Amino acid sequence: MADKKIGNSRLIELLNSKKAKIGIVGLGYVGLPLALRYTSVGYSVLGLDIDPNKIKKISHGQTYIEHISSDRIRQAVKKGFQATTDYKKAKACDALIICVPTPLNKYREPDLSFVTDTVDALLPYLRNGQIVSLESTTYPGTTDEEIQTRIESKGFVVGKDIFLVHSPEREDPGNPNFETQTIPKICGGITPACLKAGLALYGSVIDKVIPVSSAKTAELTKLLENIHRAVNIGLVNEMKMVADKMGIDIHEVIRAASSKPFGFTPYYPGPGIGGHCIPIDPFYLTWKAREYGLNTRFIELAGEVNSGMPAWVVAKVGHSLNQRQKSIKGSRILVLGIAYKKNVDDMRESPSVFIMEILRNLGALLSYSDPHVPVFPKMREHHFDLKSVPISPSMLASYDCVLIATDHKKFDYDSIKKHAKLIVDTRGVYTQPASNVVKA
Question: What pLDDT does residue 5 have?
Answer without folding.
Answer: 44
